[in-house]
Design a protein that fits this description.
The protein is mainly α and about 190 residues long. It has one domain. Helices cover about 80% and strands about 0% of the residues. It has nine helices and no strands. The C terminus is likely disordered.
């Protein structure tokens, strides 16, 4: 369910990618969808999830500039700016605040060594940088239709692939229950 809520503001760009609406109509629809996303987040969790708040702010700011200046490039680079901002946050938090954002968010659910948390944090920063760079490349070198399809399939496909890689990494580095590690007792002993 959360993945669907996260995906909602991107869906208008898929419609644009198939030529059903213009990029400016998609931008307006994405802005409305971002408002709905924040409301659903508030109702579902009792608060607005930070990711939804950042997405909302970025869509409203870049969408407004896109519509006011009638320049599609602003909404196209929103994804890059947002992802590079996340990359900087993941890199900057340990350097300046001695905090690992991932560990702060999910340390109560997963127990791993500090070295694994550091590497996982670096993996996320790298992912955010690369997906932002890929978005910028597609936005600058391909048509609106190609970018619109990439915006949904490329970005979320990349996230899905990264989540699988991250899942394997976390599983290999997390401390498992001691009962799993103990050899099974033979029957009759």
């Amino acid at each position: 369910m959360d993945f669907v809520i996260d995906l909602v503001p991107a869906l208008p760009f898929l419609l644009m990618g198939f030529g059903l609406i213009t990029i400016f109509q998609a931008t307006q629809a994405a802005m409305i969808a971002a408002i709905l996303q924040v409301l659903v987040s508030r109702l579902r969790y009792g608060k607005v999830k930070p990711m939804h708040a950042f997405t909302f702010a970025a869509i409203i700011v870049f969408g407004s500039i896109t519509l006011l200046l009638h320049d599609e490039m602003f909404i196209k680079i929103k994804t890059t700016v947002l992802n590079w901002g996340f990359a900087l946050a993941f890199l900057g938090a340990p350097l300046f605040f001695k905090k690992n954002l991932l560990k702060l968010a999910i340390d109560d659910k997963i127990l791993m060594a500090d070295a694994a948390w550091k590497l996982l944090n670096l993996m996320w920063a790298t992912y955010f940088f690369l997906i932002g760079a890929a978005n910028l490349y597609v936005a600058l070198n391909y048509s609106q239709e190609v970018w619109g399809k990439f915006r949904v399939f490329g970005i979320y496909g990349g996230l899905l692939a990264f989540m699988v890689i991250q899942g394997v990494f976390v599983y290999r580095h997390m401390e498992h229950d001691n009962a799993e590690k103990a050899p099974a007792a033979k029957s009759g002993e």
